[in-house]
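Data deposition worksheet. Section B asks for the primary sequence of the deposited chain exactly as it was used as input, without tags or linkers unless they were present during the calculation. Section C holds the resulting structure in token form. Section D is free text for depositor observations; keep each observation to a single sentence. Incomplete worksheets are returned to the depositor.
Section A, Depositor: J.P.
Section B:
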Amino acid sequence: MKCIKEAAAKTYGRDTATVKTVTEIIDNVIANGDAEIYTLSKKFDGLDLKYIRVPREAVTAAYDQVDRETIEAMKAAAAQIRFYAEKQLSCMTELDTETPVPGVRLGHRLVPVDSVGCYVPGGRYPLPSTALMLAIPAKVAGVKRIAACSPASKVSGTIHPAVLVAMDIAGVDEIYCVGGAQAIAAFTYGTESIRKVDMICGPGNRFVTEAKRQVIGEVGIDSLAGPSEVLIVADESANPDFTAIDILAQSEHDPNARATLVTTSPELAEKTLKRVQEIAAELPTGELALKSWEDNGMLFIADSMDEAIDLANEMAPEHLEVQVKPEIEQEVSDRLLHYGSLFVGHYTPVTFGDYCSGTNHTLPTMRTARYSNGVWVGTFIKTSFVQHITEEGCRNLASTAIHMAGTEGLMAHRKSITIRMDAMNKTE
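Section C:
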């Protein structure tokens, strides 16, 4: 393995200043409620909010501010996302089964979370796609109350109209014009305008991520998101225009985004480096994307495809593209185990997954794909265990439970069995 390009620095981390700032924001929202949200909007966004909860008439008006083609595109994307979520749900089944021990019946129920708060980032770009990705699986899962929030746009003074329309298409019940750590605090503890939720999902900047970290336990979360990532595994069959543009597409997300190319072809590596520079010059976002690539991007030349696969599994990227000869696509894909979402084939860029293929784009980052997965319909469903034990079952399990409780020294546990055995014996 030869490293052609290293990343300049680690793109994620937890610093004491962010921790302190977020702690103060959460404490102030708890203490001051809506008033703190208005204050922080003025402080961080330079906006005097017109409202916190977006009224229905503002959502309706947003449709007139978004062109018909964009609305139809969002509806088409929503249909694919909903189709995939429904297929995922069909794979989940409840359980009710007799066991080898007579009188003991076990099972589990699939119970949707009651309420979910979806965080849709604002920042550099409006992200209506994230509204669809978060709310639609929750809706398909059967969540009764779906709230969503997003920061106000400086142009409109409220949530970007395309994001509002996407939230409506996705079936969001309540929309709030608030972002940052204060949104996470409001969803967790509630304010005069915002009812607290049971679970928060969605990516955000370092303040949002830190806030989610600090409220875990008070509320459920999907994951702690880091900067977006892509890793491309490629051989000599890959088109350098494809690898270059996919590097830039990932890199334009933000200054901390990371793109990695692992290839068995020195020629592809050389051509990709050249094309990254050339294509970046043609893009309105090229300067940002190129800076992100220069600071965070990595390029490796592997001695074999085996070595490339091993590195990809070790890095466990958020997005993993496979651009290899068609005859080995399946073999390579089957051996890739750790990733948030896999994109197989030269004509399967991450962009499709970001918007409309149907898979979710809220995915594990920072190597957490080694043990976790992205948002899916199951994110919003609890698997709750059930047991029904008859008198016969009680007799059959009693000696095991009594012995184990005695071993652990938990005498009330032990007596909870013996008292039932005594009651049964008296009735005989």
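Section D:
The radius of gyration is 26 Å.
Residues 68-91 form the longest helix (24 residues).
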